[in-house]
Design goal:
heterodimer; A: about 325 residues; 3 domains; five-stranded mixed sheet; three-stranded antiparallel sheet; about 10% strand; globular; B: 2 domains; four-stranded antiparallel sheet; 11 helices; 14 strands; binds iron/sulfur cluster
């Protein structure tokens, strides 16, 4: 259950609209069901009061939307950022993707967001209500059944391995500030590293062959902000919308993983939106883990303007031979 | 009507699979999907498969023809493989309707022979729903979840499976199972249908109406200011089109083999930026226009060309899978307000 409420955020938004700090508010909009939240731009008090929501399903990270939104008007836009969202925000600033002056960023605390896929897997379809409680949620369905599920069983993967409750950038902070967490996010990567080469190949083949090349992972990714993606360019010869053989889909994911290496903040949006449930975060985390072990700990987005190891040459950089020698 | 005991399900499957490939929904780590039946494979009780059943007739990628170049000679190699008989078991009412929608496109002149062959070689065995999800709205398009179409319709109760043949193909398959099934009346089925229909009335989207939409409504909705707001957060990813059982657009491309090409087709999406790219440029330059196309096609253009039949079957897949939770229901409600 979130500590900060919908009302807290609506009041803040109205205050900033009223005093002219911002002209628009990027926020979460209530949906048809207890869990389907859509990113939206609010401009009036009435719309905020009617449709703005903040609950355990406000997963969407708004950072990437700022690229388009800041181009729309001269006035500032208000954005609410959860701790993990602030890393994406900083990374986009580092890459000069939007102008900082056009944004008013309010950091908000987050207690972890829920994964509706996990809830449905445990409670079944037909969900008409999800009631948050202390340590658990109560799910009600169309068939007059009720189930209580522990938060630990229904949190999104990225929240279970949350790396930071601390906001790395904001104009104003609401609620209490948290800390960087000593997370377990590399545990799964280590399991894959321990596999034999054949097992690892089989693992990734079974996962990536599920891909339908919908591109949701790329389109939601705050690190994927090219004006024209190579995979959308008909002249690139790799722009197949769908897999043409089992190699093609690996190529899409490997190219993407390389392209975001050192820039991926591990926000977890890619895995969250994949309709096929492919654990894409494991690919990106492998890169993060390797970069950490080759060049020293580096967290993309932690500091605006920081130079990622892969684009920053230093004399004591690792030689390719040494990387192989480390056997990872 | 014929029936058999649930215990005999594997025997029935084995009997069908002895002659033809049999596909049915099977639970996996990411929900249920159609898989080939073999002894030991368990049928899923999940409501709907993650990927729709259109894949059987209109696969995501399909090789059409191959050209092999040796010096000045070009060999044309036939790579077609769509002439194998198969049976699909457990298709839900919405997905069965989606085949009608695809038929009207692929089986109109010029007939798409790849699609037509697969349709001709298939037997569809549908399964009536008993536990619809909150995202279901097949009723909006007059689909009866308790009485799906298909070559054979099945109803599953606690202990038995009931089967009714609807077509010649269905009759033939049922006849083959004669020794394993027994004749029965339809009282158990009627009782189940009544119950399901009562549940359907209580669904959150039970009152969603498509009345305001249909052929001839292009001018009414095309320039609506609502499109801008509705499409505002859309990523243009194409997930909605790829999980949709009725989305039917494709692209044809050549894969360079080094000594010729394999010409293949793959799904395309009106949500993609290069979908309408032509020699002169692009006629849909923003996501607002691309987004509008998807919904206008399903709610206005398709019915205009197909006797009022809508191009959506209310399966709810796009409701569940869109990364930003924008979907046809929200579009219908918003446009309907005006
Ligand atoms: S979101 Fe999933 S299915 Fe879609 S392209 Fe990415 S990995 Fe493939
Ligand atoms: S690759 Fe995935 S985890 Fe990394 S920044 Fe992109 S969406 Fe976030
Ligand atoms: S409506 Fe949703 S699923 Fe469809 S393209 Fe837009 S973001 Fe993707
Ligand atoms: S538009 Fe959505 S609900 Fe309608 S048939 Fe397609 S996926 Fe199903």
């Amino acid at each position: 259950m979130q500590k900060i409420t919908r009302e807290n955020l609506i009041n803040k938004a109205i205050e900033l609209l009223d005093n002219g700090t911002v002209s628009r508010v990027l926020g979460w909009k209530i949906g048809e069901f207890a869990y389907d939240v859509t990113p939206a731009v609010f401009t009036t008090k009435e719309d905020l009061q009617k449709d703005f929501i903040f609950d355990d399903f406000c997963n969407a990270n708004f950072s990437k939307y700022l690229i388009a939104e800041t181009r729309k008007a001269e006035e500032k836009v208000l954005v609410f950022l959860k701790p993990c969202d602030t890393y994406s925000f900083n990374q986009l600033l580092t890459e000069h993707r939007f102008s900082r002056e056009k944004v008013y960023a309010v950091g908000i605390p987050c207690e972890g967001m829920l994964d509706i896929g996990k809830i449905k897997a445990l409670a079944g379809e037909g969900i008409i209500d999800v009631i948050p409680g202390e340590g658990s949620i109560t799910v009600k369905n169309l068939y007059e059944e009720e189930k209580t599920l522990a938060y630990g069983d229904v949190l999104t993967e990225r929240c279970l391995s949350c790396k930071s409750k601390k906001h790395v950038v904001y104009d104003e902070l609401m609620g209490e500030e948290g800390d960087v967490i000593d997370s377990n996010r590399f545990d799964e990567v280590e399991k894959i590293e321990k596999m034999s080469a054949d097992e690892r190949f089989a693992f990734w083949q079974s996962q990536l062959s599920k891909c339908i090349r919908c591109n949701a992972c790329r389109d939601i990714c705050p690190a994927c902000t090219c004006e024209k993606c190579v995979f959308d360019n008909p002249k690139s010869s790799v722009n197949n919308k769908a897999i043409s053989d089992s190699f093609e889909e690996k190529m899409f994911h490997i190219i993407r993983a390389f392209h975001v290496a050192g820039r991926c903040t591990d926000c977890g949006e890619c895995s969250r939106v994949c309709p096929q449930g492919i654990p894409l975060h494991l690919l990106n985390r492998k890169f993060i883990k390797d970069i950490n072990s080759f060049y020293g700990d580096y967290q993309a987005g932690q500091e605006e303007g920081s130079r990622a190891p892969l684009i920053n040459y230093t004399f004591d950089d690792l030689e390719p031979g040494e990387a192989v020698g480390r056997g990872v | 009507m014929r029936k058999f005991s649930i215990q005999a399900l594997d025997t029935i499957f084995a009997k069908i699979a002895a002659d033809e490939k049999l596909y049915l929904p099977v639970d996996g780590e990411n929900g249920s999907n159609y898989k080939l039946w073999e002894p030991g494979v368990q049928m899923s009780d999940a409501l709907n498969t993650v990927r729709s059943a259109k894949d059987f007739f209109f696969p995501q990628t399909e090789n059409l023809i191959e050209f092999k170049v040796t010096g000045k000679q070009i060999d044309i190699i036939d790579v077609r493989n769509e002439n194998e008989d198969f049976v699909v078991f457990g298709v839900r009412a919405c997905d069965v309707r989606s085949f009608d929608i695809l038929d009207r496109v692929f089986l109109s002149e010029p007939i798409d022979s790849y699609y037509a062959n697969r349709r001709a070689h298939s037997v569809i065995i549908s399964m009536a729903c008993t536990r619809p999800a909150e995202t279901c709205f097949c009723g909006t398009f007059d689909i009866d979840a308790a009485n799906p179409a298909g070559d054979i319709t099945c109803w599953k109760t606690q202990d038995s499976i009931y089967m009714r043949a609807n077509t010649d193909k269905g009759e033939k398959l049922l006849a083959k199972l004669d020794g394993l099934t027994e004749e029965c009346d339809d009282s158990a089925v009627s009782a189940q249908q009544d119950k399901t229909r009562r549940i359907m009335e209580r669904l959150p989207l039970a009152n969603l109406s498509a009345e305001k939409f249909g052929g001839g409504k292009t001018n009414e909705f095309f320039n609506s200011p609502a499109w801008k707001e509705l499409s505002q957060a859309c990523l243009g990813c194409g997930t909605c089109t790829f999980v949709c059982p009725t989305c039917q657009c494709y692209d044809i491309k050549d894969y360079d083999t080094g000594n010729g090409v394999i010409r293949f087709r793959c799904w395309d999406s009106c949500m993609y930026s290069d979908f309408t790219k032509m020699a002169h440029g692009n006629s849909r330059n923003s996501q607002v226009e691309r987004f509008r196309q998807r919904f206008m096609h399903k709610l206005v253009y398709y019915p205009e060309n197909n006797e009022g039949i809508f191009g959506c079957v209310g399966c709810g897949r796009c409701l569940a899978k869109c990364p930003i939770s924008m979907n046809i229901v929200k579009v219908m409600k918003k446009l309907g307000e005006e």
